[in-house]
Structure formats: structure tokens, C-alpha cells
């Protein structure tokens, strides 16, 4: 090839990259065909007005990318391996037919779940602790100590089930504090991955998964991802109706029931002891697995929390999911799934496929923090403080009821939120509140079957008593407008 007209793009990149791009476009446009030699580097330097060494650097870049081939003492050539249909067939780039545009689509619907956006003066966020109170310096010390003592192990590959010392410390904590001794523990990226893994492990397309009629939408989507059909169960002030579960098991192939029995999400109701026994008996009789989500066990204020279903599981049917996000910080993404021994190896293998393993450094730091007692001291401090904030919210609501007598609530035994009955449509009320700079969760967002609802879920853990006392009246004023 004696001549090749090149136009260097006008952009801030180095000249050799712009020249390489111009040659690449000449090949794409068919002006330089497979196997053809390029003009000499001197000729290209003369026609483009750049130094010959710059031309050689640009062409060597294209050799490295596979567009050109070079032999000692010979001209650079376009690689002969490019397929003919790669090139445009017309003489000019401007008149060539563009390649077809392919629109890729997902194999199944993937819902985009809503999340709070924007800045709010007052935010009654559900399930979020007060990050201002977290002992970052204390955790930083344990992170440094972990790096100093066992960096090679924690920063490499290890068992997908988790970093050994952390798994051992977690097992001890669960046995001592929650009376739970699962056959196998696997560390996960928060409870969300735990729920997803459980769904993949238990359900096949066409199976039925029973869920609470008002519940946690991300958990529903984790189960739907397995191909399972979800069936909502009726609820009342005591939690899930066991008779509704029994009727469902008689007419459908139920593989799992998902429950939040300690602090039901979103209503905060604690499942009564008779209903726990009845639900467990029905599940055991029909061979249904129970997926128990104990997401905020540590924050219980009115006596000791009720023991998890997993604490007494003679039939071996309970999978136990929980998270550290509520007691650490949301971005920690540290949770776990406890399963009967028969599911241990399949769960470990599935975890390896989905995300290989969790961050070892954080697990190492947590193992030290738990072993030295700092973790439980932090929990005790937060439990006392959050109980104080719940009392502040109860007091603020009592004052608000003087203005809006229809307000009704039950002070929950624990958790990080309160379920408030109001005289307003929940979505409209939440919208009016947001416009006034107040964030609150609409009860309608938690319904399995879309419909109207008059409840608001008020998170209180992330706000001081003074902030609650100022923010609650602002919320009431906005909703009542």
C-alpha cells in the first residue's frame, strides 16, 4: 500500500493513541484490508505530520492489540485473520450500512426495588442504626491487629463457608446468646445473600414458597429468583395465621415458609408461642423447610427475646438467617445462614458459585472484637440507647395524638421501628412528608398484594430523642395537611 489517508481524532489523548485510533478506523472501514501492508513509517510520519518514532509507537500498539502483524525488516501489515464480514463493503465510511443494533433482554423480570433518595431534615429510616455512635476507632484497632497477625490467610482464598476463627466465634456467640446450634454455618454478604442462597438451595421452578402477607419485598424477590411461586399467608395481631398455612400445604407443593417471628417485618409483632408451635408442627408434618430471618435479635427491650425457632428444631427443618448490618453498619455486608447438617455441603458449594467467599479482613477483625468482649459491650450500649429512643418516640406520639386522635400503635418489645396506624393513605402521607423534608416508610409498600394501607413504619434508632421530638411533629403536620 503506497498511500493511506488518516485523520487523527481531535481529543486530549496522546498523539500515538490518536494515530493508532485512526489506523484502526481505516481497517474497520475497509481502507486497509487483511494482509495488506501499510505505508512505511516514514511515509506515515510525513502524511500525518508526526515524528516517525511516534508512528512506530502507534503501530506497535496495534500489533499488541492484534490489528497488525510485524516482521523484522518488513512493512507492518494488517493481520490476515480478520473475517471478511467484519469490514464494511462500501467504498466510504460515510455511506456504509451500519451494523444491526441488538437489544439484549433479561431471561426473567428483575424488579428494581425502591430505595430512599434525596436529603431529608428528619428521616425515620427503618432498620438503620445511628452510625454516629459506632466505635470506629475500636474496630480500626482490631483491623490493624488482624492484618499484623494473620494477613496472609485473611487476604487469600479460604473456605467459602467463612474465615475459620470468625465462624468459630460466631458459633459460640449463637449458642451462648441465642441458643442456636446449626449443623453448618456459612458467612454471607448480609442477610440478603443468605435468603437468596436459601431459595436456590430449597426451591425449583414451580415450587411454592409461603410468605407473610405483609413483609420484606427483597426477601420475596430472593425467593422468586429460584423460580418459586410465592403464596401470601393471612396475618393478625399475633402474626401469621397457622390455619392459613395448613390450608396452603394441603393444596400446594410448599417447599419453604419464610418468617420473621421475633420482630415481624414490618409490623414488629412477636409471633406468639402457640402459633410458633402450630406453624412448626405443620411444617414438619408436610416436609416444609422454615426459613427464619432473625434480622435484629440483639435489639429487644422488654425482657429477654423469645428464642428463635432454630433453637428447638428436632425435625431438622429450620434454616436460620441473620445479619450484622444492624449492629455494625450497612456497607459491612456481613451476615450468615445456618442450616441443618444435611444441607451444609450443598450450601457451601452454592456459596462458592455465587460469590466465592466474604472479605476475610473484616471477619478477622470481628473474630477479635467478639473474643475480647468489645462486640457485646457495643450491643449493650446500643440496646440501652435504642430503648431510650423508642420511649422518646412513644412520648412524641402521645403528644401528637392530642392533635390526631386516630393515631394508634403498640410499643414493640424490640426492634428498630414502630408500626403506626393513621387516618391517612400511607403512600399519600409519605409523599406529603417527603415534600416537607421528612422521610417515612409507607405501609402499602410492604403489602404482597398491592392495595391501600393506612400504616406508617417509623424507624427510630438513627435519631436522637431530641431529633425525634422535633421530627415527629413535622411529620404529623405534613401528613395531616
Description:
The protein is an alpha/beta fold and about 475 residues long. The chain has three domains: about 15-85, Orthogonal Bundle (Arc Repressor Mutant, subunit A); about 120-130 and about 375-480, Alpha-Beta Complex (Aspartate Aminotransferase, domain 1); about 135-375, Aspartate Aminotransferase, domain 2. About 40% of the residues lie in helices and about 15% in strands. It is built from 14 helices and 17 strands. Strands 4-12-11-10-9-5-6 form a seven-stranded mixed sheet, sandwiched between helices. It has a four-stranded antiparallel sheet with strand order 13-14-17-16. Strands 1-2 form a two-stranded antiparallel ribbon. Helix 7 (about 215-225) links the parallel strand 5 and strand 6 (about 230-235). Helix 4 (about 135-155) crosses helix 11, helix 6 packs parallel to helix 7 and helix 6 (about 190-200) packs across helix 10. The longest helix is centred in the last third of the chain and has 27 residues, at about 375-400. The radius of gyration is 31 Å and the shape is elongated. The protein starts with 14 loop residues before the first helix and ends with a helix. Mean pLDDT is about 90; it is low at about 90-95.
Amino acid at each position: 500500500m503506497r498511500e493511506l489517508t488518516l485523520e487523527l481524532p481531535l481529543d486530549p489523548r496522546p498523539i500515538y493513541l490518536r494515530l493508532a485510533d485512526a489506523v484502526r478506523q481505516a481497517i474497520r472501514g475497509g481502507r486497509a484490508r487483511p494482509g495488506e501492508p501499510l505505508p512505511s513509517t516514514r511515509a506515515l510520519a510525513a502524511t500525518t505530520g508526526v515524528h516517525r518514532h511516534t508512528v512506530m509507537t502507534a503501530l506497535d500498539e496495534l500489533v499488541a492489540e492484534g490489528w497488525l502483524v510485524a516482521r523484522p525488516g518488513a512493512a507492518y501489515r494488517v493481520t490476515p485473520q480478520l473475517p471478511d464480514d467484519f469490514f464494511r463493503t462500501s467504498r466510504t465510511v460515510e455511506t456504509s450500512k451500519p451494523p444491526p443494533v441488538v437489544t439484549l433482554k433479561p431471561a426473567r423480570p428483575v424488579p428494581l426495588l425502591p430505595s430512599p433518595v434525596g436529603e431529608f431534615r428528619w428521616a425515620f429510616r427503618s432498620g438503620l442504626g445511628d452510625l454516629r455512635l459506632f466505635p470506629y476507632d475500636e474496630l480500626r484497632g482490631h483491623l490493624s491487629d488482624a492484618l499484623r497477625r494473620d494477613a496472609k490467610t485473611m487476604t487469600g482464598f479460604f473456605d467459602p463457608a467463612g474465615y475459620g476463627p470468625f465462624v468459630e466465634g460466631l458459633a459460640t456467640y449463637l449458642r451462648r446468646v441465642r441458643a442456636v446450634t446449626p449443623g453448618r454455618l456459612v458467612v454471607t454478604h448480609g442477610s440478603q445473600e443468605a435468603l437468596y442462597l436459601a431459595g436456590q438451595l430449597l426451591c425449583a421452578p414451580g415450587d411454592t414458597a409461603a410468605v407473610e402477607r405483609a413483609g420484606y419485598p427483597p426477601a420475596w424477590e430472593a425467593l422468586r429468583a429460584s423460580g418459586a411461586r410465592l403464596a401470601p399467608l393471612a396475618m393478625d395481631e399475633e402474626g401469621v395465621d397457622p390455619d392459613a398455612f395448613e390450608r396452603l400445604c394441603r393444596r400446594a407443593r410448599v417447599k419453604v415458609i419464610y418468617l420473621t417471628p421475633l420482630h415481624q417485618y414490618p409490623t414488629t409483632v412477636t409471633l406468639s408461642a402457640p402459633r410458633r408451635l402450630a406453624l412448626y408442627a405443620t411444617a414438619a408434618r408436610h416436609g416444609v423447610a422454615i426459613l427464619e430471618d432473625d434480622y435484629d435479635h440483639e435489639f429487644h427491650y422488654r425482657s429477654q427475646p423469645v428464642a428463635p425457632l432454630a433453637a428447638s428444631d428436632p425435625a431438622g427443618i429450620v434454616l436460620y438467617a441473620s445479619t450484622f448490618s444492624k449492629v455494625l453498619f450497612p456497607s459491612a455486608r456481613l451476615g450468615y445462614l445456618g442450616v441443618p447438617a444435611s444441607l451444609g455441603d450443598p450450601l457451601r458449594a452454592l456459596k462458592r458459585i455465587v460469590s466465592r467467599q466474604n472479605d476475610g479482613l473484616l471477619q478477622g477483625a470481628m473474630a477479635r472484637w467478639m473474643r475480647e468482649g468489645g462486640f457485646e459491650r457495643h450491643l449493650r450500649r446500643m440496646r440501652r440507647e435504642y430503648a431510650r429512643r423508642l420511649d422518646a418516640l412513644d412520648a412524641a406520639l402521645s403528644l401528637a395524638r392530642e392533635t390526631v386522635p386516630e393515631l394508634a400503635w403498640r410499643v414493640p418489645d424490640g426492634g428498630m421501628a414502630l408500626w403506626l396506624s393513621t387516618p391517612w393513605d400511607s403512600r399519600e402521607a409519605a409523599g406529603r412528608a417527603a415534600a416537607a423534608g421528612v422521610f417515612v416508610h409507607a405501609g402499602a409498600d410492604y403489602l404482597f398484594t398491592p392495595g391501600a394501607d393506612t400504616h406508617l413504619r417509623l424507624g427510630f434508632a438513627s435519631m436522637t430523642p431530641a431529633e425525634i421530638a422535633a421530627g415527629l411533629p413535622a411529620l404529623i403536620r405534613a401528613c395531616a395537611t
